[in-house]
Design brief:
The complex is a heterodimer of chains A (389) and B (352).
Chain A (H helix, E strand, L loop, with lengths): L3 H24 L9 H25 L8 H14 E2 L11 E3 L3 H5 L3 E3 L1 H23 L4 H20 L5 E2 L2 E2 L14 E2 L3 E2 L7 H23 L1 H11 L1 H6 L4 H27 L9 H14 L4 H24 L1 H8 L10 H15 L8 H9 L4 H9 L1
Parallel strand pairs in A: 2-3
Antiparallel strand pairs in A: 1-3, 4-5, 6-7
Helix pairs in contact in A: 2-7, 2-10, 2-11, 2-12, 3-5, 3-6, 3-10, 5-6, 5-10, 7-8, 7-10, 8-10, 11-12, 11-14
Chain B lengths: L1 H5 L8 H31 L3 H31 L6 H18 L8 H31 L8 H22 L4 E2 L9 E5 L2 E4 H23 L1 H11 L1 H6 L4 H27 L1 E2 L3 H16 L4 H22 L4 H15 L14
Classes of the chains: A mainly alpha (389), B mainly alpha (352).
Chain lengths: 389, 352
Amino acid sequence: MSTLGDLRQKRWASWLPAVVALVAVFLFPLFFDPLDSQTSDATTALAYVVFALGLNIVVGFAGLLDLGYVAFYALGALTAGWLASDHFTGAGGDSGIDFGVSSFAASLPGIHLNFLLIVIGAIIVCAIAGAIIGLPTLRLRGDYIAIVTLAFGEIIGRVAQNGDEIKIGDYAFSNGRESISPIDQLNFPFVGEFDSATNVRPYFWAVFALLLVVLFVNLRLRDSRLGRAWVALREDEVAAVSMGVPLVKTKLMAYAIGAAFGGISGAFLGVFLNSVNANQFQFGFSIFILAMVILGGLGSIWGVVIGAALLSYVNSNLLPSLDRGFVGDFLTDAGLDFTLSQINFGIYGAILLLMMVLRPQGILPERRRKMELTEGIGGGDESLAKAKA
Amino acid sequence: MEAASVSSPARPRGAGAWEFISKYGLIALLLALPTVYGVIDLVNDGNLARLGNNLVAGLSNGAIWALIALGYTLVYGIIELINFAHGEVFMIGSFVAFGLYGTLGLTESTGAGGLALGLFVALLISMLAASSLNVMIERVAYRPLRGAPKLAPLITAVGVSFILQNVGILWRGGSQRGIPDLIQAQRQLFEIAGVAVSRADALAILVTIPLVFLLTNFVTRSRLGKAMRATAQDPEAARLMGINVDTTISLTFLLGGLLAGAAGIIYALYQTQVWFFQGFTAGLIAFTAAVMGGIGNLRGAVLGGVIIGIIQQIADNRIGVQWTPAVIFAYLVIIMIFRPQGLIGEETREAG
């Protein structure tokens, strides 16, 4: 007899691997020295997971291909640069404007705000930017959306790179190709200030906490009214709208929420890397994150987490170690003068190509999306019929 | 789709006005940059020589963009896919052309006759190389996804584009690379009222015009061209009429690749430098051109190419090279929002 209790147990069973994995990730830095490069690589990797989860909302849930996701990295990081450095030197007199930061940061000129406020600022900036970028794409068809988002991403990247020429009052928009640096250390209420020069672990746990929040919001969103509306729009826009799904609001929410997650991660990376360098804001970054989402499985939250972690690992550890190891030796023996790290984006391109051709549903597919991708939209009924027969 | 467009429902009131505003608004917007700087020139210098020079350089640059844009528009017209890797095919065309300088022994001191013959051979070979690459890309990356949702081939296109960029990095390194200036590209041919026409300008325009002429004739007159147009209109019906749709699609990629290869060698001779990233920028500029003219529309692609070439040249010369991409993307966004069907109008299935 299947009872509610059984179902609840099954639910727990399906949650168990995720919980075990999260606990393992939480303990991860304890296995390494406080300053080990593994810990800082893992910190970046978790930030990338947050990016990928944000992009997954737009591309995976709502089915809107966004090729300009780097824009939100740029805006999030710039927000951190503006609100946690001496970029606005003259603001608030000699000791600057400060709130909730250590006495050292408070004594510096410029604006210095607590990281939580910066995150909120980045969320607001990116959500508005996401909605603005989304607005013109509402009337467009799928492939045009991709190009418009790509164009916006490039425009924001260009503006950041040449931001030293744009003056707002006495201050530049960004430092252009020079970084905005240094940026304040992380600082949480009741915890105090971290110091990445002596210990990276707190940064890891900080981004892990951010990730947990984002993950929770993602899971709840997926099962919410809004999440179902996204999937309905993705599968058949006309049908969804005629069933009463509000098109404009639903799509804009996807853009804004996806962008906000990107902003959170961008702000964190700005602080973690201690500088905001506009040269990072390249088209390649958008594709890097897209490759994570495709690899993991469009629309599959846990798949995207795995895909992002995997690809970050490939980027920061596997390729360099292969270059130092047998692949590097092989290339040298063959008289080829290049390393795998040099052509990493070619490798991510190959991942996109191979995944889409061979396994479009990703490593850990979401069931619904798999049906769409392998049988085409509208093929779902047929497969249901087959399953019943 | 088709049936719906035939018995088009009563247009909402104001649609005509919107059509008028969006079309002429776009034209006004396109004319804005030349007009503004023309007036500035007249005030400052008392003549239009600087603007004239911008226009000539823009026209010849635009010829290159037009060749690439035709590749986008052909492919979009037939399978409604933005062939994102098309810019990279153009880049590989440039690299092949540069490679052939060495193979054919072309140097800056080669005599005029030998140079002309050598470059003609190089042109043919780069065109063939680019077109076979383009056909191969279609076979590997797009054909397996014919029945998949539309985003799938677009994602593989992005993937192929990155793969080819990295092939470019492996082939010629990661930085801009100066190559021999075989035709002394910047040497002035003649000058009219302060407007100089260089050899590079002449080359770009003189190679482009016959190619565009041949292409339009092929598409409108030949049997295969007819098959292409039929497939573009309705692949299923075309198949029923005995047209081999797969071959026709391959042929389309072949034609697009030929033009991209030609654009590649012209670019190499014109700019006298090549690098792996040239395809990305050129691809987006040319795509903007194709959309501006109305995607799927051959005349539109040429018109768009020329216009975008002029805008790009003015932006390079007056606003600053570092801002040019931002200016062009801004135009792209504005066109896509207010007039996605372009200046002349689209000729695709969805347009109806």
